[in-house]
Amino acid sequence: MQEKKINGKTLRIMIGDITERDTDAIVNAANNYLKHGGGVAGAIVRKGGQIIQEESDRIGFVPTGSAAITTAGSLKAKYIIHAVGPKWGESQEEEKLKNAVLSSLRLANDYKLKTISFPAISSGIYGCPKNMVAKVLINTAAEYLKNYNTTLELIEFCLFDEESFRYFKEEFDKI
To answer: Is the pTM of this model over 0.85?
Structure first.
């Protein structure tokens, strides 16, 4: 785990299981229809309960680059922020990914949350290169902490594997 202070707030990178995080919100790498079958989304519903899928079904469609919020069922977190990142090859992936992160951070702020944990959005079955994902996520979070008045005190990236952590650490070390 590594941390940096930006404007008195904490930016953190770590390896772990995002479903076990006790932050106010965890971010789910979601698809447009919030159908949580595989990857991070599937793990969240398996551990948090069917209520997460039921609430997601009521929301319905979320455009790529946007986010929606539900409760977190029986997880330690209070909320799930469902961020829809891009699929590799659909064009404007970096911009869409940045918008998904900003949408998530704004939702967290709207709900007056203090802590949030992100996975490496779009780097799994959506196929975006891990180095690009790390660059966009780290830089977007750092810019947000530098430039916005926010209730968030901690933005963390909870990464599933060593390879993702290495890419995130490279970008983290540059800020």
So the answer is: yes
